[in-house]
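REVIEWER CHECKLIST
Item 1: Sequence provided? yes
Item 2: Single chain? yes
Item 3: Sequence as submitted:
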Amino acid sequence: MDRKLALVTGASAGIGAAFARKLAAEGFDLALTARRRDRLENLAQELAARHGIVALVVPADLADPAAPATLLAALDRPVEVLINNAGYGLPGSFARTAWADQQALLQLMATSPCELAHAVLPGMLERRYGRIVNVASLAGLVPGVPGHTLYAAIKSLMIKFSESLHLEARPHGVHVSALCPGFTYSEFHDVNGTRERITAGTPRWLWGTAEAVVEAGWRAVEKNRPICVPGLANQAVAALSRLIPEGLALEIMASQGPRYREA
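Item 4: Structure as written out by the authors:
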């Protein structure tokens, strides 16, 4: 089959669904995974009918350590594009949240995407073609805030992982990029119950759409840029965070964090 296969995690909504639509329009076949089968099936039917591509539905919970291997075993074709997008926020202070919940967050957003990349990378290197987009966050480029304690740490890890993998894969035709959006209109804040707090605390010009994020992210990985921060406002925030002394930056986050996150 001439069409390449793209695997999109967290494909049932938001940035994941927008990536699926973008890649289908670009002529890729799709393997769509998330926990909600009904949403995946509706999206797969829509994209197959509109673009004449094959869209496979493979429901999985990547918080389960066995899920990455099971997911890949269900595919009978090599993965040539990997979009590591699945994720959520876990509000609340570190001490007052259960370790099992924190462990599931780490598995879903750090271990599973690294395992998927590790599994598909050898084939990409051999074929001298591959695209890996790790959906990180602007939060991984600025100092941490109270609440959602591991979220920024995980996103920072994914950025550094992407940078190193970018350098390793660059000579072999494989492109790796960390996509670092800021506030994005999606279901993300609905899932963790913070939409009202977030929207009340941030100006509208700081928000972007999932479609705009995906357009920027796909351009970046096609051009083999290791990091993509979509939007001028987010780029300004990332730049300022590097210029402000660390102690001052932490105090700013300490004062502003409660406006957006449950400590």
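Item 5: Key structural point noted by reviewer: The mean pLDDT is 90.
Item 6: Recommendation: ____
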